[in-house]
Design goal:
Cofactor (chain A): FAD
Structural class of chain B: alpha/beta
InterPro entries (chain A): FAD-bd_OxRdtase, FAD/NAD-bd_sf, FAD/NAD-binding_dom, FAD/NAD-linked_Rdtase_dimer_sf, Rubredoxin_C
Number of helices of chain B: 29
Oligomer: heterodimer
CATH superfamily of the largest domain in chain A: FAD/NAD(P)-binding domain
Radius of gyration of chain A: 24 Å
Keywords (chain A): FAD, Flavoprotein
CATH class of the largest domain in chain A: Alpha Beta
Strand content of chain B: 15-25%
Distance between the termini of chain A: 72 Å
Helix content of chain A: 25-40%
Strand order of the largest sheet of chain A: 5-2-1-9-21
Protein name (chain A): NAD(P)/FAD-dependent oxidoreductase
Strand order of the largest sheet of chain B: 5-4-16-15-14-6-7
Number of strands of chain A: 27
CATH class of the largest domain in chain B: Alpha Beta
Family (chain A): Belongs to the FAD-dependent oxidoreductase family.
């Protein structure tokens, strides 16, 4: 029997997760071709931070090396030349920069996201980079050998991971953030303060609520300093922009696939073209875009379910949890950690142990959590949140986690009921 | 304790009137004392109750008054004594001797008491010396005097064991005189014919051994015993020969009793008892020769206290059952030396050595013996009137010794106000902080138990030597020394030139024998055999019952079997009695009756007993016991806080819903002071009604109303350091092992914030690392403070005391035993739940061996135990003082019920 042709654009985590799922669901169904713009197999992008820190090597973060593609009879086209430049939907084929073509019966677009670059004066200077891939990591590692001053723009997850890595590599690092709280999309002010204190203790500097005006070059066109709105300057040999990512949907859009802030997909991850699916950070599902691994993997599973012909799974956007990949810092954030006036906020603080926990409840259900320092029960809170369980009975021990809640249910609640009776 | 530095000293217990003997192993260098019962002491034969057993935990000097103070200024003895003497002199010179007063205590030793009485009555020239014994047993004194012509306890403790019927009336003996109670329990186990009747409005722990419990209406005792007298007359159970030869006034007494209680149905109505129970009791009493009626404050603290005493004595006289082995009345006194106080005449209404103002020649006799400079010739003011006179400005200087009237007197807020405006208040005490000391102009540090040395007398007239075990704390001095020093400074050098307490004891003994004969003035109290006691003999003093004189060199167990009384014609008096209602009756506004009393593990105003952590575990907070019906009627919930209000004052207490309380009656313990409970002083609520004869207050009967305290929040703090007053409605302190526990409740929601907690606790803990849990919507706040990894305090607050919101204290308390907490313990601490592996033993049941309820339940469950004896064998609980046996039995009973058949 002739196999259907599946082409995957994007050799990242989302696309390859879908392929893996597909291989296990219907190994014989597709003849698979993968195009990737990076010259590697499939690696765990989340682990780039440990690589930057020197805690892991690139080999160690590989999910699937080239051998795996061979073993599974997958054609891999990897490298800058193999970047797809055109989708010919009429002929059902894709064409790469170097002219390589591949026909498809089903196309899976997994082009991910690209770093957001603020068009500051000087953003094109040498020494100004993003933190997105192995190339960026290698750049940073080489700068760390010869240069001294690193400035990271952006106090989000990626920025902090980059700052930590550069510090580990011996650079003097300052994080420049335009907001008063770090990780302001994942943390409330309390947790953010703890986090900042922890980074400061590691020797990383911060400029909060900073108004970055321009990057100043040296004689050779290399970045030399950062200039701020108040006129002050900061010496800078390496400027890392880590101010967020945006879905990479230019290719899809140019092929006439319906896009808004991302490639619009339905609950089966199908685009407006029935033979084209999309997963990962490039998609927009029910108005939302994605930056975390958990929903992306979930998308990959649902997509594979449909590509394999089972066609029963539906993707639901679930609250996703954040974990910061910095050794020694445990941080977990999920859902709506701010809440509104209808919400109840439960907090636990132990500044000396560097532990902070915050739960947000609405109508006796967990709708958000921030855990700092002790994240053991993060997944339990997430489960409570997803299952919308009424937690009023265990509320007084909720912050101490599942073990204590179980104990409370076993020992205290029966005793209390006995007392009342 | 190393053997070499240990010595064994025999002494007596500091607490109740049973007067148990103690054998103390003393390590002076470590200031440690190990307490054991004295096997040879006739009061206890080696047994001790939970309080006595814990005396070793009360000798820490940290709470002691260590030096004299004038105002807030520490000073030396000379300056302080000069100030006391000169101010007293000046006030006496200006306003006369009756403008000054001494208010003493049954805690004083006989020698202290003797010197205070001598100074006041013989040298200052006023009888304004009264004592807290007025609150405790003055109705017994008056009742004895009316019937016997003198204040004599006719029987002894052995009679509790020899009797076939023990009537315990107005006494929770199981808690208040535990060792006497244990003796009855043991005797009853051996003697199948022995029966016990308990007469008490409350179903107390004492009822555990009762064959019959009569929950009579408060104050109806006279009617009950008048009914008994009628029954004895009607059934011809009288000892006519004894009545004819040795008594007078019988016909009048019977007539009055018939008038008052001739109709059984009416007696039943007035006493709130069933006719069947009444008849049972009357028959048992009538048909049992060996009857002992043991009575205590439930009888005496009443506006008809003296009549109640005489109604009991009438029945014993009518049957000739007095002063015989196993038969007679026995007044149980509250304090360790209340009896010694009676002997030296420490009450305003008596002279000395059982002599009386109203008996011709006595005043002169005492004056001659003392060579008195200014002999008082008329009685002084009894306690309640004395403080009213202070309030009225008639008494301008008062010296309070070893007692805490701001707490213990009725209408105590008025007492406080009186002392606040009194020009000169001197307080001698062994502790540094009491509600009364706070009002003192001069504070004098007295020696406490374990330091002071002298003679005490227990409820069966037995003199024992309470000995010093340790050197005094700081500058503390014996009370007799302090009083003598002031006496000398007042110009009475020779009369108060004592160098050693034995000199005082000799003088006291000599006075008791002075002109004491049938030719001169015969008195029961005679210890003249000790008039020349040597110092060595005094040191070696063995317990002995008075009289001790030529006729009875080895003492005497019983009085009056021979029918020889101390009235002029040597006949006993029957007293014609009519039952009277208590002074204030409940009405619509104040519909409930407040009863007060002691707890098992506390003593008086807790200045000592509360220092022993294990004694604070049994009942850690002031509580009010209410019947379930009343709880429902007034919206009270068990474990919540109630507000009690009388016409005189108010207090807060934790609600304890209990079937042991009759509907319409409530009970609160007497012990709590402002040192331990911000608003838990029962004395503030109690009405200032007194018995017209004895002056003893009616502390057992005050109309009150009760309402739930609408606390917005409840909580507790466990803290290594004492905390300041938080200014909230309910703050109760409990001393525990290595930490203090504060129970809290408040109305103000702003206290539910971490900022409020920080503001309060930062005063004590300026530099701690803080940990907290905050659920503002639910009103849940938990805060802990650490120094390094050592837990310094933990606070838990919730809008309800439900254990689902407010964790149980036991587990959190256990963490104070650890010097360091592991990180996982610290992270889980505020959950209030043990980390894996920690065992929770439950609420303490046995204070002696610190055995918890869960431990007992486990032992019962795992070993199939069916009796408290087996429980005792298994986990020691209940095997020492036995006070917790009723509770163990309750636990056993509850487990039988729940076990599958």
């Amino acid at each position: 029997m002739t196999r259907e042709k599946l082409v995957v654009i994007g050799n990242g985590m989302a696309g390859m997760k879908a392929v893996e799922e597909l291989l296990s669901a219907c190994p014989e169904r597709y003849e698979i071709t993968v195009f990737g713009a990076e010259p590697y197999g499939n690696y765990n992008r989340i682990m780039l931070s440990p690589v930057l820190c020197g805690e892991k090597t690139i080999d160690e973060i590989m999910i699937n090396d080239r051998q795996w593609y061979q073993d599974n009879d997958i054609v891999l086209h990897a490298g800058p030349d193999k970047q797809i430049t055109e989708i010919d939907r009429r002929r059902r084929k894709v064409i790469s920069r170097d002219g390589t073509e591949a026909r498809y019966d089903k196309l899976l677009v997994a082009t991910g996201s690209k770093p957001f670059i603020i068009p500051l004066p000087g953003h094109q200077l040498d020494g100004v980079i993003a933190f997105r891939d192995i190339f960026d990591v290698n750049t940073m590692l080489s700068y760390a050998v010869t240069r001294r001053h690193a400035v990271v723009l952006g106090g989000g997850l990626l920025g902090l991971e980059a700052a930590n890595g550069l510090k580990q590599q011996g650079m003097e690092v300052t994080v420049v953030h335009n907001c008063s709280t770090l990780l302001n999309r994942q943390l409330d002010a309390n947790a953010a303060e703890l986090l900042r204190a922890e980074f400061e203790a590691r020797g990383i500097g911060f400029m909060m609520e900073a108004d970055t005006k321009e990057l100043i070059a040296d004689d050779s066109g290399h970045v030399a300093a950062v200039k701020f709105g108040d006129g002050t300057e900061l010496p800078c040999d390496l400027f890392v922009m880590a101010v967020g990512v945006k879905p990479n949907f230019d290719l899809a859009k140019s092929a006439g696939i319906h896009c808004e802030r991302g490639i619009v997909v339905n609950d089966t991850l199908q685009t407006f073209d029935p033979s084209i699916y999309a997963v990962g950070e490039c998609v927009q599902h029910r108005g939302m875009t994605f930056g975390m691994v958990a929903p992306v993997f979930e998308q990959a599973k649902v997509c594979a379910n449909h590509l394999s012909g089972h066609g029963v799974a539906e993707y639901k956007t679930l609250p996703n949890a954040t974990k910061l990949k910095v050794t020694g810092i445990n941080l977990f954030s999920v859902g709506d950690f701010n809440g509104d006036s209808d919400c109840d906020v439960l907090e636990f603080h132990d500044p000396e142990l560097n532990v902070y926990k915050r739960l947000v409840l609405r109508a006796d259900r967990v709708i958000g959590a921030v855990l700092y320092g002790d994240t053991l029960d993060g997944s339990w809170y997430q489960t409570l949140m997803e299952s919308e369980q009424d937690v009023s009975a265990i509320r007084s021990v909720l912050l101490f986690g599942q073990r204590y809640a179980d104990k409370f249910v076993e020992d205290v609640i029966p005793a209390a009921l006995q007392e009342v009776a | 304790m190393s053997q070499s530095s240990c010595k064994t000293i025999k002494t007596t217990c500091a607490y109740c009137g049973v007067g148990c003997g103690i054998e103390a192993s003393v390590n002076e260098t470590e200031r440690q004392v190990l307490i054991n019962g004295d096997d040879n002491h006739p009061a206890n034969f080696g047994r001790l109750c939970s309080k006595g057993s814990s005396l070793g935990e009360t000798i820490d000097v940290s709470s002691r008054l260590l030096t004299p103070y004038i105002g807030q200024q520490a000073t030396d003895w000379n300056t302080a004594l000069d100030a006391v003497a000169s101010t007293f002199s000046q006030i006496i010179a200006e306003h006369g001797p009756d403008s000054v007063a001494i208010y003493g205590s049954g805690q004083l030793l006989t020698e202290d008491y003797y010197v205070a009485n001598k100074l006041m009555k013989g040298f200052i020239g006023s009888a304004n010396i009264d004592t807290n014994s007025r609150l405790c047993m003055s109705s017994a004194v008056s009742g004895h005097k009316r019937a016997f012509g003198t204040d004599t306890v006719p029987n002894c403790y052995d009679d509790l064991e020899l009797a076939d019927l023990v009537v315990i009336t107005g006494s929770n003996m199981a808690w208040c005189h535990p060792i006497s109670y244990q003796r009855i329990r043991a005797a009853k186990a051996k003697n199948p014919n022995m029966r016990v009747v308990v007469i008490d409005p409350r179903r107390t722990a004492t009822c555990d051994i009762a064959d019959l419990h009569l929950p009579l209406a408060g104050g109806s005792d006279v009617v009950l015993f008048n009914g008994l007298l009628n029954h004895l007359v009607n059934g011809q159970y009288l000892q006519q020969e004894y009545i004819d030869n040795h008594t007078q006034g019988f016909a009048e007494a019977v007539a009055a009793a018939q008038q008052d209680a001739g109709d059984l149905a009416e007696v039943a109505l007035r006493t709130r008892l069933s006719e069947r129970d009444l008849v049972t009791f009357y028959n048992w009493f009538a048909e049992t020769d060996k009857v002992v009626t043991a009575y205590s404050q439930g009888v005496k603290q009443s506006s008809s206290g003296v009549d109640k005493v005489n109604s009991i004595l009438n029945c014993h006289l009518a049957t000739g059952r007095i002063g015989k082995p196993g038969a007679g009345p026995l007044s149980m006194t509250g304090q360790p030396n209340a009896m010694g106080g009676r002997e030296v005449g420490g009450l305003a209404t008596t002279l000395a050595a059982h002599m009386e103002f109203n008996i011709d020649g006595d005043t002169d006799r005492v004056a001659r013996f003392w060579n008195a400079a200014n002999m008082a010739t008329k009685p002084g003011l009894p306690a309640v009137e004395l403080f009213e006179a202070i309030a009225a400005g008639k008494i301008k200087a008062v010296w309070i010794m070893a007692t805490n009237p701001v707490v213990s007197l009725p209408n105590a807020d008025q007492v406080k106000a009186a002392l606040q405006q009194c020009p000169f208040v001197v307080v001698s005490d062994c502790v540094a902080n009491t509600d009364t000391l706070e009002l003192a102009h001069i504070k004098l540090p007295a020696q406490g138990w374990s330091e002071k040395d002298g003679i005490v007398t227990n409820s069966e007239r037995r003199l024992s030597h309470q000995r010093a075990l340790l050197p005094p704390a700081g500058e503390a001095k014996p009370d007799w020394w302090i009083i003598s020093q002031v006496g000398q400074r007042l110009g009475f050098k020779d009369a108060f030139n004592y160098q050693h307490q034995v000199e005082i004891f000799r003088e006291h003994a000599a006075l008791s024998g002075f002109e004491n004969s049938s030719e001169q003035r015969l008195r029961d109290f005679d210890i003249s055999a000790f008039a020349n006691i040597s110092q060595q003999q005094y040191e070696d003093f063995e317990p002995i019952q008075w009289p001790v004189n030529q006729q009875y060199p080895n003492g005497k167990e019983r009085f009056f079997a021979d029918g020889q009384f101390y009235t002029p014609n040597r006949k006993a008096n029957f007293i014609a009695l009519t039952g009277r209602a208590p002074g204030n009756l409940p009405d619509q506004e104040y519909p409930l009756v407040l009863n007060t009393g002691r707890l098992r593990d506390q003593w008086h105003t807790m200045t000592r007993s509360a220092l022993a952590p294990r004694l604070n575990q049994h009942r850690p907070e002031p509580f009010v016991e209410v019947n379930p019906q009343d709880a429902a009627k007034y919206g009270l919930k068990d474990g919540h806080i109630a507000h009690l209000q009388s016409r005189w004052g108010q207090m807060y207490a934790r609600v304890n819903v209990s079937e042991s309380q009759v509907a319409g009656d409530v009970f609160v313990p007497m012990h709590w002071t402002e040192q331990y409970a911000s608003k838990g002083r029962m004395g503030a609520v109690v009405n200032p009604v007194v018995d017209p004869v004895s002056g003893q207050p009616e502390s057992k009967h005050t109309p009150i109303r009760i309402a739930p305290y609408q606390a917005e929040w409840h909580g507790f703090v466990l803290s290594r350091q004492p905390l300041p007053d938080a200014g909230i409605d309910y703050q109760v302190k409990v001393n525990c092992q290595g930490y203090l526990r504060y129970e809290l409740a408040g109305y103000d929601q702003s206290s539910l914030s971490i900022d409020w907690v920080k503001q309060w606790l930062s005063q004590v803990y300026p530099a701690l690392s803080w940990q907290y849990l905050d659920d503002a919507k639910l009103g849940l706040l938990r805060v802990a403070g650490y120094q390094g990894n050592s837990l310094m305090f933990v606070l838990c607050i919730a809008t309800t005391p439900d254990i689902r919101m407010l964790p149980e204290r036991n587990f959190l308390s256990s963490l104070f035993a650890k010097s360091q907490l592991q990180p996982d313990e610290r992270l889980a601490l505020l959950s209030g739940l043990p980390t894996a592996g920690a065992e929770d033993t439950g609420a303490q049941v046995c204070a002696c061996f610190n055995v918890g309820e869960k431990t007992i339940r486990k032992a019962i469950r795992e070993n199939g135990l069916t009796s408290y004896q087996e429980v005792g064998k298994c986990c020691k609980a209940g095997t020492n003082c036995g006070s917790c046996v009723p509770e163990i039995k309750t636990i056993l009973a509850s487990m039988v019920e729940t076990q599958p058949a």
